[in-house]
Amino acid sequence: MASKKTAQKTLRLAPVLDLNEATALHEKLLALKGSAVAIDASAVERIGALCVQVLIAGAKNSEEQQLSFTFAKVSDAFVKTTQLIGVDIDPLMAKEI
Amino acid sequence: MDMNEIKEIFFQECEEQLAELESGLLKLNDGDRDPETVNAVFRAVHSIKGGAGAFGLDDLVSFAHVFETTLDCVRSNRLEPNQDVLKVMLKSADVLADLTNAARDGGSVDEARSRQLIKELEALANGELPPASAAEPAPKAVAPAPEPVAAPPVNEEGFQPVAFSFEDFEANEPALIEATCYEIVFRPKSELYAKGNDATLLLRDLSRLGEMSIHCDMDGLPPLDRMNPEAAYFSWKISLKTDKGEDAIRSVFEFAEWDCDLDIALADGCAVDASEELPMQPVPFDLSMLDEAPVGSVEEEEQIATRDRDAAVSAAETASNVLQMAQSSTRAPAEAQKNATAAASAAAQQAASAATPTIRVDLDRVDRLINLVGELVINQAMLSQSVIENDTNGTSSINMGLEELQQLTREIQDSVMAIRAQPVKPVFQRMSRIVREIADMTGKSVRLVTEGENTEVDKTVIDKLAEPLTHMIRNAVDHGLETPEKRLAAGKSAEGTVRLTAKHRSGRIVIELADDGAGINREKVRQKAIDNDLIAADANLSDEEIDNLIFHAGFSTADKISDISGRGVGMDVVKRSIQALGGRINISSKPGQGSVFTMSLPLTLAVLDGMVVTVANQTLVVPLTAIVETLQPEASAIHSFGATQRLISIRNSFCPLVDVGRILNFRATQANPVEGVALLVESEGGGQRALMVDAIQGQRQVVIKSLEANYTHVPGIAAATILGDGRVALILDVDAIVAASRGQTLKPEMSLAAAG
Lengths: 97, 756
Prior knowledge:
By secondary structure, chain A is an alpha/beta fold.
């Protein structure tokens, strides 16, 4: 699809994604609206449910607009937390570089 | 903010919670069966327990826990909150208050009493009314009970402190229980996150309990551009296979209970496999990585690094409660859109308790402000006086401006005074405890009815009100009310009523304490007064005068000295403390129907409306509240009586004429009454006196400056003030003057008052 070829933007997540970070993350994702997003979660040490909500909302948004939304790099903590709270990020994982 | 400050906030909140607890219990006692009332009571105990746990106050925690367990029975309708149950609960609330005070100020509590209450509470929780023999040895207080009614076993002490770490559940739990499957539906509310808690942490703790499968319901998630990043959208359906029991699951959500919807149900079969209609994601056991994750916001983390994580969360919760209340009202609208039904009730209830946001301010700061405003008022008066003196035409624009300034300063003063004003509620609430205790000791059945608890009065007045009120309540229950048998014999209900009312009346607060007891036994009072040489045996006294005899020092009609009252210190002390507050106390009693004590107190101790008078070239201020009327004596109305006494006839009755200048030693001889003005004043004894002064200058509001604090006590003088011309004027102590006119010397009476 054509849209997939638009320039991909990478968003690097902060190490601590708690209540305070949720609003900031929301704003960052809003700013990236309309382009393909690759999330770099390799630095994440701790992520709360609020930020997961924001990320998933971002992913859904991209899906509706047929843009790609992938987790390019993820940290162990990020994967474990999402598993713990039952959020399946597998379909969003970058399958190939 | 260090630990001590957080602790101080915790104790302040404890006080609020305890007040909440008590008023809730009293409502229940009056037959209120609103589930919200029960919840409020439960919440109060729960919050105290939570905070106490964070600060390691084990006594408080263990008692609160037992209390909470019993309250939970009431909440789940397993225990009918009848009078007997509530009696135990009210006593428990008292002990909880004692424990809190002991934790704050040190000191000890009556351990036997709390142990006894713990037993009674547990008995109630177990569904038995008489206190159970709590000697059965048992492994653990929190029984892993699949059906919640199962009796929690207790150890030989009668209770088991419940520690807050989850290790306990793993280490001490009997391993006999089969693993059971639970279906848990967990829907966090936005408040959960706002309090620094996180669903991930709760789920992590939950996953430690056993094998867990989870499904995250994301249906509620709105589009990215319309979502509130700090609101809760996700909810979870969890299937958990654990051998720890439902209680363990509940304790995971212990501090989040109020901020989420939680449904825990036993599952028929273990649906850990994903065969259900909802795809479940099995949660791997190895979550060790996440253990390192700090909890709470970063600042809190630094402060409470030494505490375990649950303590930190709860401390944060406690410390931020005040903030929460204010926030919740602003948060409510956004939330209501989403969780319309669930959130609306919670938000409404929280909004009700936080209708107007409040702040805590140091009393010192308020006092400093009040002092400054007082100076401002004086300065304004001086300014306008000097303008008037230098201004001959009198209608200049300066005068207009000054008038406005005067109004403004008066308004500022009123507003500042309002800051110090507090409802009398806390004092009244303390009284209900005293009534309970005295009723218990005397074996009487007493009901305290309070009215107008929201009447506001200056904080100093409130603080000083507690002691005299306590005395009077004791007297009312101990002497005033009869025993149930006597009451029944007299055709009254067995339960006596003590009514405590507060209301505003013409710039003063009037507090009334009425009992429906036997009333004052005038014959006995009179005899006692004669025995104690207070009155002559043949004195002819009116009923009112006899009633007022009980305010004399060393007067007690109780035949036997009891623990409670009757040691002869009582009503005279009460009267003196009320007087020291600038108040008056009156009694009216009807035999067989009870007595009514009426106290009238100034709303504030900082300003006073007074009449400025001249006596022997001195300027004095007479409190306006004492003055009934003013009159110009005529020579024909003055009658001499004895060597030095004079009477003035006012509307066909005689009233002693008191020369203020002579009493205060301003002049050596009595002044001519016809040249002066008489102020008819009402004094404590109920009698009227005509105070004679040389002239009336005017009426104005004056700022009270304590003489004791700045100089020393002066007999006959209550305080001082600074007038507009910068001169100091003394404020007359009308009661002392009247007492002195009766022939009592000024000095000893007053020094007693100062000591009292």
